[in-house]
Amino acid sequence: MPKFLTIDDLNFKDKTVLVRVDFNSPIDPQTKKILDDTRIRAHAETTIKELIQKNAKTVILAHQGRKGSADFIPLKQHSQALSKALGIPVKYVEDVFGEKAKKAIKELKNGEVLVLENVRTYPDERKKGTPEEHAKSEFIKNLAPLADIFVNDAFAAAHRAHTSIVGFTAVLPSVAGRIMERELKSLSRVLENPEKPCVYIFGGAKADDSLKISQYVLENNIADHILTGGVISHLFLVAKGFNLGKPSMQFLEKQEVLGLVPGIQELMKTYPVKIEVPTDIAVKAEGKRKETTVNELPTSYPIYDIGTETAKKYGEIIHKAKSIVVSGPMGVYENKEFLLGTKKTFEAVAASKAFSLVGGGHTVAAVKELGLTNQIGYISTAGGALIEFLMGGALPGVVALEKAAARA
Ligand code: 3PG
Fold first, then answer.
1. Which domain holds residue 33?
2. Which residue from 238, 240, 263 is spatially nearest to 248, judged by alpha carbons?
3. How far does residue 211's CA lie from ligand 1's centre (Å)?
4. Residues 14 and 162 placed together within one structural domain of the fold
5. Neighbours of 9 (CB within 10 A)
6. Candidate from 63, 119, 206, 386 with most ligand 1 atoms within 8 A of CB, to mutate
7. Which residues contact ligand 1 via a Cβ below 6 A?
8. Using only C-alpha atoms, what is the Rg of the chain?
9. What CATH number has the domain bearing residue 211?
10. Mean pLDDT in consecutive groups of 10 residues from the start of the chain, 408 residues
């Protein structure tokens, strides 16, 4: 577990506190409306609520989308969603560190909350840099003198060495917020000496990420079993020498992931008993689910799910697990015919007594759709940051907090 300070370590009464959160939410490209406010509610119900109760003057810094993308919108809606989640009015100013923002910060009273404009409207926000380099920017030089404390609660953006993520830690007393703390604590349960057996379940289409995480957790003796589904498992089957048939092979070619096969073969050679690949699969034949064993491959139909026998075997391994990570659905679960693999596997995770951690947009959506949310140990709000962390990477936002703590 990283060594940083938390909200418990400082006094927040009467203090002006800059809080970097991750409000980045899915946005409807047509209406520009927020489609899911999970992240906003998570920060509201924890860190922000606590700072209000502690009588701080809370200033929220956040990003939404990237310049030029359809989801790059102002944070007005986010401030409204935050107000709704908190049940109190929340101020909003269309400015990050100009005169309007500075005036609004100075006028804040104890217990009040102000949301500043999307930090990515500042052109250099996404420039990579060290805390010390960023501390010289106009952004930090204008805002830091108005604040007493910096709270980084944006675990989901902690993999970015961006101005608002790391810059304030060089010049202000800096602590981790509750979401940051909660995410790292939960992750340490599956990454640092996890209770054994420890099972990592990979599905979905992000083959490159899954392979890197597999390598890390196998080489470091973290995972005892790797269960594969989705596109990932198709690649593992190819690595085992199976020809999947034209539709699935063409799909893998189009995704440009076949280059990962040698790396997978190497991994399977080194850890022959730890990696599970499907023994049966479900294809979409004339619009219907049809199961076959992998020994019957190739198939002229596209593969859409793991088969019943595979799901059963995965369920047995999950049943014996003490810690579980789930990243990616087992098949095209959005289509009811191909929900089975994901349903059986995720239900086994939900029923298990193990500590389970689930992350990634599609995985979390599938868990929600199956009504299993309350039976999962921890649902991460992060995407890219979670992946980087599971690969064993150091997150600049976390490292910056550790450095600030060492200085303090
Ligand atoms: C995320 O949603 O993963 C974070 O908010 C980071 O967003 P980014 O990939 O645009 O930096």
1. 7-180+395-407
2. 238
3. 21
4. yes
5. 12
6. 63
7. 22, 24, 66, 156-157, 160, 383-384
8. 23
9. 3.40.50.1260
10. 93 98 95 96 98 98 97 98 98 98 98 98 98 98 98 98 98 98 96 96 94 97 98 97 98 96 97 97 97 98 98 98 97 96 98 96 93 97 94 97 95
